Amino acid sequence: MVINTVFVTIIGRTNAGKSSMLNALIGEKIAAVTPKPQTTRTKITGILTKDDTQFVFIDTPGFHKATTKLGKSMLKSINDSLSGVDLVLYVFDVTRKIALEDIVNITKPVILILNKIDLIEKGKLLPIMEEFAKLHNFKTILPISVVCNDGLADVLDECEKFAKETPLYFPREKFTDQSENMLIAEIIREKLMYALDDEVPHGVAVSVESAKEIKDVFHIDAIIYCERETHKGIIIGKNGQMLKTVCTKARIDLETFFNIQVNLKCWVKVKENWRNNDGILHNLGL
Ligand SMILES: Nc1nc2c(ncn2[C@@H]2O[C@H](COP(=O)(O)OP(=O)(O)OP(=O)(O)O)[C@@H](O)[C@H]2O)c(=O)[nH]1
Ligand SMILES: [Mg+2]
Questions:
Q1: Whose CA is nearest to atom 12 of ligand 1?
Q2: Of the chain's two ends, which shows fewer C-beta atoms within 10 Å, N or C?
Q3: Collapsing DSSP states into helix, strand and coil, what is residue 169?
Q4: H/E segment holding residue 75
Q5: 43-92: per-residue pLDDT in tens?
């Protein structure tokens, strides 16, 4: 079967709204979204098939200064995501100071996505667009607001222009390359990152040990890794309250996502310095 396909990578500073945009474009929550920096840790592919066009979007970790092996592997995955794609969406948070050093070397066509326009006065947009236009030869500049669902159709329209006739790469109903366990872990990690403060969220990782459906209930066992005993105490909380809240929030999302009753059990384990441990990073798919 022949179809038009476009491979699109989504890059930009941390917290610009890349994962929010991916989820909104494909209409499924596959990537964690939080107000904290460095939420996304690896490449996540989201697929949307609309009529005769298949959009393959690759969400990436945000640009940041890497200090751990995890950080370095995050930066590498941005570079890896650039090979073999037809188009790059560079997502920029319009409330931030204009800077573009991250993309000067990209030879692929780049569309600039100015996100979070709900947060600025209308009059401020045009000068920002003019300033960016001087910095790079963008194919086009699209102002959007993911939270207000404003401009997302334009993003799809512009991406479609770069689609080429190909065989069907993914079944029409497929919307991600993530395994079921990875999707579950991402939902739990999102709730943890929301709940935790300071440096703790960046030191947590989630591994789903088992997930099986028995008599219309989805039983999930997960391990939450953290880097210190003190962090373990924070994650569990007084009388286990913190962990309970996180698990309840994750369970509600999981039940919506999988449309089945969920029984979620989480254990917290300390693995010192796991962000610099190749073996653990490998096991976590990072
Ligand atoms: N006001 C507003 N907030 C937004 C918009 N889009 C995303 N956000 C918020 O911005 C924050 C970061 O969003 P993410 O989607 O996690 O950003 P990201 O670029 O994937 O971040 P990293 O994975 O850390 O690189 C979240 O709190 C979002 O809710 C928008 O259009 N308007
Ligand atoms: Mg992200």
A1: 15
A2: N
A3: coil
A4: helix 69-82
A5: 999 999 999 999 999 999 998 888 999 999 999 998 888 988 999 999 99
